[in-house]
Write a structure and sequence with these properties.
Elements: E1 12-16, H1 24-35, E2 41-45, H2 57-73, E3 82-85, H3 91-100, H4 105-109, H5 112-117, H6 125-140, E4 145-148, H7 153-170, E5 178-181, H8 216-224, H9 242-255, H10 259-263, H11 269-296, H12 298-327
Parallel strand pairs: 1-2, 2-3, 4-5
Helix pairs in contact: 2-11, 3-6, 3-12, 6-7, 8-11, 9-11
Bound molecules: adenosine-5'-tetraphosphate.
Length: 334
């Protein structure tokens, strides 16, 4: 069986689930990178993945639009990149179902998220099946290489396995993606608890989480209160001094310096914090302003997303059409 049944393209697909208000970590680890890789790239606000655990519809609607606005505000150009909302392209759900008909319960039961959050009588069925939806997200766009960090590799492995199985059972249909190591990104840590990743699903009032939409005074306050250590030495040592190292990494990521170099110009922790706060405010403030403009003109934002969805559907529907035909679906719609 060939692993590349179709001439694939080196497309990029990435996305963010609107399960919380985006953080500085999302900006440095994702949105800023999206901006630097736009041609033949698909960036999705993965709102269907936000339905696998209890959620409120109103905040989900708002976060979906706000996340899309942040994609554009961070520099995604609708003439170059395809930016869309997952639920606007029905092929995702339909192919997700077809893949559920190929995936095994054994392999879905081994997924880390399900093992950690699922397995209870009232666990939503979608928390069990969502890896098939994620496989559909990947396979629809015929990406050959999928760059992933450690915690995502299990999903791409599953997408590979179901694609290979589908192709074997029903004939060459999908490009089988290869895992590519994502370029190492600084992992932004929670300012109040540097043992933890800065995470968008943290509680709204989490003191150590900088949100992309925080106002400058809030950003400054959170950074000034960041947990450091008592020894006062300005040394980059992520194991022994994780709080200080986190600040140096943030500053370095924003100034294009290595963390040790970024912190070297400062003698006192307070000075490093002020420099870090200035750099974060300089980066995020224009993004927040552009976001607010876009959110103030819902028609423009909706039009941008409609354009993205149409472009995404042109690609996705072709793949879905092949899968429908291969698996034996007939009817009025081909
Ligand atoms: N702290 C971080 N540092 C660097 N990059 C990060 N990313 C996330 N957090 C950091 C990158 O952002 C993209 C989306 O990842 P995610 O959806 O896993 O974001 P999250 O904030 O970590 O979300 P949660 O809190 O785990 O919420 P759920 O699981 O509910 O969506 C990725 O490119 C990631 O690398």
């Amino acid at each position: 069986m060939t692993t590349h049944p179709l001439p694939g393209r080196d497309r990029l697909l990435s996305g963010i689930t609107p399960s919380g208000s985006l953080t500085l970590g999302n900006y440095l680890g994702a949105l800023r990178r999206f901006r630097d890789a736009q041609d033949d790239a698909f960036y999705v606000v993965a709102n269907l993945h936000a339905l696998t655990t209890a959620h409120d519809p109103t905040p989900l609607r708002e976060r979906t639009m706000s996340t899309a606005a942040l994609f554009f505000a961070s520099g995604l150009d609708p003439d170059r990149a395809t930016v869309f909302v997952q639920s606007d392209v029905p092929a995702h759900v339909e192919l997700g179902y077809l893949l559920e008909c190929v995936a095994y319960v054994g392999e879905l039961g081994r997924m880390i998220q399900f093992k950690e959050k699922g397995g209870q009588p009232r666990t939503r069925a979608s928390l069990f099946t969502y890896p098939c939806l994620m496989a559909a997200d990947i396979l629809l766009y015929e990406a050959v290489r999928v760059p992933v960090g450690g915690d995502q590799s299990q999903h791409v492995e599953l997408a590979r396995d179901v694609a290979i199985r589908f192709n074997g059972l029903y004939g060459p249909t999908f490009v089988v993606p290869e895992l590519a190591a994502a370029p190492a990104a600084a992992r932004v840590r929670d300012l109040a608890d540097p043992a933890r990743k800065m995470s968008k699903s943290a509680p709204d009032d989490a003191a150590g989480v900088i949100r992309m939409l925080d106002r400058p005074d809030v950003i400054r306050r959170k950074i000034q209160r960041a947990v450091t250590d008592g020894d006062g030495r300005m040394v980059y040592d992520p194991d022994a001094k994780p709080g200080l190292a986190n600040l140096a990494e943030i500053l370095g990521a924003l100034t294009g310096q290595a963390p040790a170099e970024a912190m070297s110009g400062y003698g006192r922790y307070g000075d490093l914090k002020s420099a870090c706060a200035d750099a974060v405010v300089d980066a995020l403030d224009p993004v927040r302003r552009r976001h607010d403009q876009l959110m103030g003109d819902v028609d423009e934002l909706t039009a941008l997303l409609a354009r993205g969805a149409q472009r995404a559907a042109e690609v996705a529907d072709r793949t879905l059409g092949r899968a429908r035909a291969a698996i034996g679906l007939v009817g009025a719609r081909r």
